[in-house]
Write a structure and sequence with these properties.
A: about 450 residues; alpha+beta; four-stranded antiparallel β-sheet; B: about 250 residues; about 25% strand
Chain lengths: ~450, ~250
């Protein structure tokens, strides 16, 4: 028989027992739906985690630092030129790094521990400069209270939640994370902080209150004590500086402002003899995490130290692969049950259509024709069940996503997309459903093909 | 119109046996029957119930395989054919008509008649035209879209006859074709079979337990009892009738 005729007869036969075949197909749909729903959540969570991590700067950032600061160490395992020969990490180097292929931006890391006064009470904390571009690419600022810096060098600050709590004298309960960020921000937004800092000024400025220093290469600088009023514009729940571990900052300034203030940084031991500013380290943001190793290598070749956390994503991917595997197994259980339904339906169909099979054989149908017919019926149920199942799974995923977002909104969290149905999942689920159905059809089809026509024709 | 060489051998069975096991006992449904049927003959297989008529017919149809002996149809020894080859043999060489019509209830008459053409991989448009013509020849051109349950027994058997002849087989095997019909409808069907036997030169092997029917239409009568051939009688009356100008001719 031609393929078209097999398909035509199969559809006709399925229509004849529409109720039973629909039930079987619904069984397959439920199986596929559970598989799709499970995997779509797994994939969605993976994408959410990837997005978060990507935005956190953990995986698309290379930190470049000068090897000069290492020259007093006797041993170093780093490859590349000896620390003394390492070039200075100055503005020219920053521009050169920024021109490397794949690099989006390279900005200096400015961070310093300083004293901030709020309502005349001193609070010592780590302060960091934040580039203006973080407004859009660091989701720590997405869901914050208040607003991002109004301009590149605005005298404004964004506080991390824990520092805000410190300012208000709130002690967070151990193990709980239920402080309402909105209520926390209300008394602080618009208020003023006074930052006291040590300015490193170029020679020959006369030191006023502080002393002066001389560097190994003979360049001198002086340190001046200054203060700067800063307006609190935002309070963020998340930790924008999570990459820094214990040295993480809790107060954030616009990077441009931080640069203009020439704050004396503890880590910076050297300065170039020129007017060019020299940086302790640079954060190099790369467009695609895949390019991180190449950029890291290029920076090392330029004579600087470079490190990134891109390898950590490998273990994350591994974790999600295992999670997806488990979810797929649980999702497939329902499909396995559905496949038994297909076997049952087709075996019943053979019993019911025994005489019909006998007639077909008497009229000249070959074993292959009969086998093909039952096989096509199983495949058609798999195809329809797969397509309906994918739609159902998609709808379930959406529903779970919707419900989760309602919950997140009530908890004052930003909405999140925890569900994703990529095209490969749609096509893969339908193909998988068809394969399972065809495998289930193997036994009934072989049984139908083997039927003895004389016995089948006698069957009433 | 094809007319077979009257001297050619259509069917030969040589000491053919078909034994079944029923528990401990062995049933000899066909027990060493040897017959020769020439092309174009109209042969009736007569006998009481359980005499082995249908079993012998199934062996000739290639639906069953003999326990021993050989069945040769138009030079093909059926015992040596594979399952696939037997299916092809049933498709192209044999047409079958059954007592209970055996039309597929879920299909219209046209689709039922088309079915062997589907197995023969005939193009959709061509098979539709062929099936339409076949149904027209048995007087059912107005019933193409009807399902079997909507038709009388006689109409169903005519459709079944159209289906059996759609692939222009050399051998028509009829198992009690009038068994479920009243006598007037039965006569109509028998006249149709005879007309096809004459006009197409098709060999007919018909199982019946009605002596009168056999005497009226079959040129030869084979009597079976307990799986054995007990009598092989030429029926000159029927032969004369079939050689005389046909009273009805090819219908419609």
């Amino acid at each position: 028989m031609k393929l078209y005729d097999i398909a035509d007869l199969a559809v006709r036969n399925l229509r004849e027992s529409i109720f039973r075949n629909s039930l079987t197909t619904i069984g397959i749909s439920v199986g596929v739906a559970s598989l799709v729903a499970m995997l779509s959540l797994g994939i969605g969570l993976q994408q959410l985690a990837s997005r978060r991590l990507q935005k956190s700067g953990l995986f698309d950032t290379v930190v470049a630092s000068s090897r000069r600061d290492l020259r007093n160490f006797r041993e170093t395992r780093e490859e590349g030129p000896a620390p003394a020969e390492s070039p200075a990490l100055d503005e020219a180097a920053r521009k050169k790094i920024e021109e490397l292929p794949g690099v989006v931006e390279a900005y200096p890391d400015i961070r310093f521990a300083t004293d901030l006064r709020f309502e005349d009470k001193p609070h010592l904390t780590m302060v960091a400069g934040v580039p203006f571009s973080a407004k859009s690419n660091n989701d720590a600022f997405d869901g914050m209270q208040g607003s991002f810096f109004s301009s590149e060098a605005a005298a404004e600050v964004i506080l991390q939640k824990s520092f805000a709590e410190e300012l208000l004298g709130i002690k967070p309960k151990a193990g709980s994370d239920d402080t309402n960020i909105a209520e926390l921000a209300k008394p602080l937004l618009g208020k003023e902080l006074v930052m006291r800092y040590a300015e490193r000024s170029a020679p020959p400025a006369a030191p006023s209150e502080a002393g002066s220093g001389e560097l190994a290469n003979g360049a001198a600088y002086s340190v001046v004590s200054r203060q700067q009023a800063l307006k609190i514009v935002g309070v963020t729940d998340l930790d924008p500086d999570s990459m820094r571990g214990t040295a993480r900052a809790r107060v954030f300034l616009p990077l441009k402002l931080a640069q203009d203030l020439h704050v004396m940084q503890s880590g910076l031991r050297d300065t170039a003899p020129s007017d060019q500013p020299t940086y302790a380290s640079l954060s190099v943001r790369v467009g695609n995490p895949n390019q991180v190793p190449a950029v890291e290598d290029a920076i090392k070749k330029m004579g600087f130290s470079a490190f990134s956390l891109v390898d950590a994503t490998r273990s994350m991917r591994q974790f999600f692969a295992v999670l997806d595997g488990f979810l797929a197994i649980f999702g497939s259980l329902a499909l396995a049950v559905a496949s038994i339904g297909i076997v049952n339906t087709l075996v019943m169909a053979i019993l019911e259509r025994r005489r019909e099979i006998g007639i077909m054989k008497a009229l000249g149908a070959s074993d292959a024709d009969v086998r093909g017919l039952f096989f096509a019926e199983a495949g058609a149920m798999g195809l329809v069940g797969g397509a309906v199942g994918v739609s159902l799974g998609w709808a379930i995923g959406r529903l779970i996503n919707f419900g989760t977002n309602i919950y997140l909104e009530r908890q004052h969290f930003p909405p999140a997309q925890i569900w994703s149905v990529p095209l490969w999942l749609v096509l893969g689920a339908i193909a998988f459903s068809m394969v399972v159905s065809l495998l289930s059809g193997l036994y009934p089809a072989a049984r139908a093909a083997r039927l003895d026509p004389v016995q089948a024709l006698r069957y009433e | 119109m094809e007319l077979s060489d009257p001297n050619a051998l259509a069917v030969r069975t040589e000491s053919v046996c078909r034994h079944y096991r029923m528990g401990e006992a062995s049933v000899r449904a066909v027990d060493g029957i040897s017959i020769d049927i020439r092309a174009g003959e109209f042969v009736a297989l007569l006998g009481a119930s359980g005499s082995g008529k249908s079993s012998l017919l199934n062996l000739v149809a290639g639906l069953d395989r003999p326990t021993s002996g050989a069945v040769t149809v138009h030079g093909n020894n059926l015992a040596t054919l594979s399952r696939e080859q037997l299916a092809k043999y049933r498709l192209h060489t044999v047409g079958m008509v059954f007592q209970s019509f055996n039309l597929i209830p879920s299909m219209s008459l046209l689709e039922n008649v088309e079915l062997p053409l589907r197995f023969a991989e005939v193009d959709r448009r061509e098979r539709s035209a062929l099936a339409g013509t076949a149904l027209e020849r048995v007087g059912l051109s107005a019933r193409l879209a009807h399902r079997p349950m909507e038709l009388s027994g006689g109409e169903q058997q005519r459709a079944s006859l159209a289906r059996a002849l759609i692939n222009r087989p050399k051998l028509l095997l009829a198992d009690e074709p009038t068994g479920n019909l009243d006598s007037r409808t039965g006569t109509e069907i028998m006249e149709l079979i005879r007309s096809f036997n004459q006009s197409m030169g098709m060999t007919v092997l018909m199982v019946t337990h009605e002596q009168s029917l056999a005497e009226k239409y079959a040129g030869r009568m084979l009597h079976l009892a307990d799986g054995r051939l007990v009598d092989d009688v030429a029926n000159d009356n029927a032969r004369k009738r079939s050689s005389a100008p046909d009273s009805q001719g090819e219908p419609q």
